[in-house]
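fyi for ur records
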Amino acid sequence: MLTIDIGSKNIKIIYAEPSPKNVSVKSQILLETPENAVVNGLVADFDSIVEAIRDTLEEYEVREKRASIVINSPEIIIREIKLPKTNPKNLDMIVYNEVESFLRDDNYKVEYFLQYQEDGIVRAYTFGIPTRISESYKKMLLQIGLTPVALDVGANAIRKLVSWGNMIKQPGDQRMDVIADIGYNFINFNIFEKKLLVYSRCVRIDADDSIKKHVDTLRDKTKRELELDVDFTTYLSAVGDEIQRVLQFLISSDFRVKETKLYICGGTANFDGIRELLHDYLSTDVHLVESRRSPAFRDESLKEFINALGAQIRL
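which gave:
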């Protein structure tokens, strides 16, 4: 199956064969997103995206037609809801009745997964995806010549990867894990307790577009050169401030007694010395995500491909 994650700066494609114990990656492809094709985390120019992906698949001689797409956007509404323990056949109806209270209209496609049961209560995470978005991405896959299998949300893709393997936790670990997926325009935060997703939020990086464009040209610079670049320092402060807000949220929440471990991934995780630079800014240890379950997958690529890899897993 193919999984496609379209970002503001890069498109990530994985062709793999998942199994209960592994994801056997046959190809992982990184290509530049056509300029101005993605706005606010969503595709604005489908024609250029269709052409770029179709040409790339032909270049790499990828013949697989089954494909799923990963979406990250602040327009996606994420909620945890509590449900009475019931017959699984009734779950869809109960979930849809519950989400009506905060979606308020039928212009959303609703996806959900069950977290766990406790004292006769089932906890579920729901994702409200605007229908115009889900239908446009489905149409895009068809235009490329692919068969849509699923539409996944970035938070759910990472959740599956965490639940499926030991990417961030060793057996017996007791702590809160914060994964900050730092892209070009947005940071996607996902917080886990005992491999259970307990919080998810997508926030915009508060830096001018001119600064982001300049920072994007610095990817081959050394840590020392980055430290001396005023725009990079400004960008790093904007990223660090958003991470600090999430860490402060944990401190002020019911999870304040828990140890917290911070992981980063995404395109920004590729800058030289980024762990040390963020550590200095936050006064907190910073770790890169690792893949211990899938030996066919290279850890150095997981930083960019984490959403596409997680979308390969069907839980």
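The longest strand covers residues 22-32. thats all i got for now
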